[in-house]
UniProtKB/TrEMBL annotation:
Residues 140-205 form the HTH luxR-type domain. Keywords: DNA-binding, Phosphoprotein. Pfam families: GerE, Response_reg. The lineage of its organism: Bacteria, Pseudomonadati, Pseudomonadota, Alphaproteobacteria, Rhodospirillales. The modification 4-aspartylphosphate is found at D56. GO terms for molecular function: DNA binding. The keyword Chaperone does not apply. This is Response regulator transcription factor.
Length: 215
């Protein structure tokens, strides 16, 4: 399956490097490029819909994490991977908290950006191994309490081992909507994969009621 990937970075060499890396690893992928943040919206609204966006936090007009939040608010169904020269734990965590589905330092090897793209396209989150990134998380009940009713239905489907298309059919929504819900669920639960979400959901499941006593 071919994918359309939008690279948003003001450095021509970085865009070229990403384009070459993706082209070699993902046959048939269509690459779109912009060099300014204000070019993203017109491109997405011109019919050039993207399956995923690779976003530099420091490009002109970006305003850092504010730009990321604006992009996620306007196009919630399109996952975003932040590709940044900054790789301190605070920046990485804030990027994920504010809507990114992945974070790849520009210093990372090419294989990591491909791993990140595949993971995010599969509806998962992707983070680099950075010391100090993971803070103490609240218990599963507190995390699950932040989910909306629709997100809880999706989580229940994940816990039952259902595919996104099965969940979408049962909820009568588009599969892309379910994918967007899954990404948000993983972020709110503080996990990276569907499997981890299912394990956490199992911690919230009630044990079967004991059978009535035999008289």
């Amino acid at each position: 399956m071919s994918h359309r990937i939008l690279i948003a970075d003001d450095h021509p060499l970085m865009r070229t490097a990403l384009t070459q890396t993706i082209g070699q690893a993902m046959a048939g992928a269509e690459i779109l490029e912009v060099s300014r943040f204000d070019q993203i919206k017109p491109m997405l609204e011109s019919g050039e819909a993207a399956d995923i966006i690779l976003l530099d936090l420091h490009m002109p007009g970006m305003s850092g994490l504010i730009g990321l939040m604006m992009l996620r608010a306007e196009h919630p169904a399109i996952p975003v991977i932040v590709v940044s020269a900054s790789e301190d734990p605070v920046t990485v965590q804030r990027a994920i908290d504010y809507g990114a589905s992945g974070f790849v330092p520009k210093s990372a090897p090419n294989t990591q950006i491909i791993e990140a793209i595949h993971a995010v396209l599969d509806g998962e989150l992707w983070l680099p191994e950075i010391r100090g990134l993971e803070a103490d998380a609240p218990d599963p009940a507190q995390r699950a309490a932040t989910l909306t009713p629709q997100q809880l239905r999706v989580l229940a489907g994940i816990a039952e081992g259902k595919l996104n298309k099965q969940i979408a059919y049962e909820m009568n929504v588009a599969e892309t909507t379910v994918k967007a819900h899954v990404t948000t669920i993983l972020r709110k639960l503080g996990v990276l994969t569907r499997t981890q979400a299912a394990v956490l959901a199992s911690q919230l499941a009630l044990a079967p009621a004991p059978p009535p006593p035999v008289e």
